[in-house]
Structures are given as C-alpha cells and as structure tokens.
Amino acid sequence: MHNKENLSVMIKHFKLLIFLTGLVLWIKPVYSFFELPALNVIDVNIISIEELKEFIKNRDGKPLLINVWATWCAPCREEFPDLVKIANEYYDQIDVIGISVDFPEEIDSKIIPFLKKQNADFKNYVIKVIEPEDFINLLNENWRGAIPATFIYDANGEQIKYLIGKQSYEEFKKALLKAPSLSPTMGEKI
Amino acid sequence: MIKKYLLVFSLLLVSIFAIGACIKSSQKPGAIENFTLQDYNGKNHSLSDFKDSVATVILFIATECPVSNAYNERMENIFHEYGPKGFAFLGINSNKAEFVDRIKEHAKDNGLTFPILKDENNVIADMFEASVTPEAYVLNSEFEILYHGRIDNSRNESEVVSKDLEKTLDEILSGIQVSKKETKAFGCTIKRI
What is the 3-state secondary structure (H, E, C) of chain B? Predict the structure, then answer.
C-alpha cells in the first residue's frame, strides 16, 4: 500500500519536474525575443583612420558628436556620465560615438567593463593608428591631442565645433545648440 | 652747482635705462625665460645652470599617468645615451595633485635618475604652454625652443617607428638644423590649479 502511495507521489513529482522544465524551455526564447539586445551587448570595434574618415563623411542625415577618451584619463571618466546622458536623450537626433585611445588589446579587459559600468549604449571604437598625428589632424589640426576632446559635425560631415577638456552636460548641450545646422526640433528639445 | 648735479643725475638715469634695455634685449623674442625650481630633494635648479650644455631637454612628466609611465624606461635610456654627450635633462611635474614625496618615490621605483622638479601652481607649464604628459621641449643655450612635442610616435614601444626626440638630439649633435621642430604630444592632460 505504502509502495503504491510512494510511487504515486514520485510520479506526481516527476510530472511537475517535466512541466517546470518545459516551462523554462518555453519562456527562455520568448523572453529573449522581447529582450532588447542593445541594452546588454556592448560591442567595441577597432577603427582605422580611413574608416573614421568615411564614417564622418557618410552622414545619414544626422549630425555627429565624436568624443575621444581613454579609461586611463581621469577627466574623460568624469565627463562620461554627462556624455551618456546626452547620447540617451538625443539618440534620435544626433549620432554619438566614442573613440577610445586605449590599446586595442584592452577592449575586453578595460573598455567594455568601463562602458558597462557607465551604461553607455552608444557606439564606441578603438583607434588603431601608427602615426597619432594622422588621427589628431583628421579631427582638427588645431587640436594638440589632449583628451578628452569632443568634435561636432553637421549632417554634411562638416565640423562645426570642437571642445577640448572635460565638459558638463550643460556644456555639451550648449555646444550642440550653437551648431547652426542641427535640426530646429533639437533646439526646441534643448 | 645744482645744474651740474641735475645733469649728472639725468645722465645716471639715462645710463640705468640703457643698461636695462640691454639686459632685456639679451633675451631673444620667443625664448623661454630663465626659471628656478626645486627638485624632490629640495635642491634648486635654474635653466641658466645649463647654458653651457649642448642643449637642454625638458620633459613634462607625471607619476600617475599611464602614458607618461609607459615612457619611463625610454626617457631614462635617452638620458643615459645623450647625457654623456653634453645634453642636460630636466623632468618637470606640474600636476597639482602630485606632491614631492610621491614624485621622489615614483622616480626611485621607476629608476628615473635625471632631476625631476616640482612646478608648484603649474607656473612653468603655463610658461611653456605644455598641455600633456609626457611632453618634450629642447632648448638651445639662449633658451630658444628647438623642438617641441612627443618623444616618439607610440605609447606602445613595439610600434615605435619615429623616434622624434632622439632624432632631434642627433641633428643638434651633428650641427645640422632640426628638421622637425614641432610634433603633437599625446598623453594625459596636465592637471592645473
């Protein structure tokens, strides 16, 4: 009698286990389908001078803000939360990209952990260059290479403003607002 | 009698102004003014102490900047190679939060044997208009800038293809004109007051 009861309990437990396993297997793909991949995936690529030149030139109807930074640069780290705020707030009106001057070998060990900590969803690259002056002069010939540095381009890829040193949220906004070719709606929003 | 004294006094005044003008004109336009700073042992070093050197190499450096630190060994090697050839070397730390004790400790830990001076309130960095670490200047005996910029092209020593500072020093040694007077230094921003 006892054996029969035990067997019945065991079967019930087994059925429950099968049900729960099925539920988990069903939920996972459904959850993944609705999950926004960009929230958790931070992808950092290496970019060359030529690729950067093309990127600046080929605007998709949007102005561009390029921020040059490094994980070892204290003022860069300090201004980053404000940059993230700007990028999140105006993601539909401007393209924001970061260019790290850390070593490309430090993407996984330093750059991605830093970006995750900052909740930075905007695209980031690491510049790969043998002659740093090519990079400096591409962004602005008057720039001496000190970071952080921010460069703002209009929708035609023409540079309209550059900012050297640590900026605040208000300073980023002010610089963007001064840009004559930015859309009027952005001005309103700012 | 009074007229005579007035004449002598006027002549004296004119002479003083003339001498002053001569002293002033001895500094070439665009040249760096003489300065005195203390090293981490409290010893004074003036630019004028090195007037007889082939040239003076000024290196703005830092203790906590990874870029500057990546150059520690290279800077020390350059000092060892060119010091005996008559070049003077001075390191300058202008960062507001890097104090003398730390500079001394950092020099010891990293084997930096050239004098490193503390530039309180970044007065000298302002005078040179230095902006990052490491940033190099080479001055002739009249404190004119012969070279300003980077040490070489890469923080990563294995990717160095252009040893700009060493090339400059070789050109000075050979008595030929410095071919590239200006490059763009890259590194950590000097933290000013």
Answer: CHHHHHHHHHHHHHHHHHHHHHHHHCCCCCCCCCCEEEECCCCEEEHHHHCCCCEEEEEECCCCCHHHHHCHHHHHHHHHHHHHHCEEEEEEECCCCCCHHHHHHHHHHCCCCCCEEECHHHHHHHHHCCCEECEEEEECCCCCEEEEECCCCCCCHHHCCCCHHHHHHHHHHHCCCCCCCECCCCCEECCCC
Q: What is the mean pLDDT of residues A3-24?
A: 70
Q: Do B191 and A101 touch (CB under 8 A)?
A: no
pLDDT in tens, B168-192: 999 999 999 999 999 999 999 999 9
Whether residues A101 and B186 touch (CB distance < 8 A) is answered with: yes
The answer to whether the predicted template modeling score (pTM) of the entire model surpasses 0.90 is no
Which chain B residue lies closest to A145 (C-alpha atoms)?
A: B186
Task: Please indicate whether, in this complex, the C-beta atoms of A130 and B159 are within 8 angstroms of each other.
Answer: yes
Q: What is the pLDDT of residues B30-47, one digit of tens each?
A: 799 999 999 999 999 999
B189 closest CB neighbour out of A75, A103, A133:
A75
Which ipTM value was assigned to this complex? 0.79
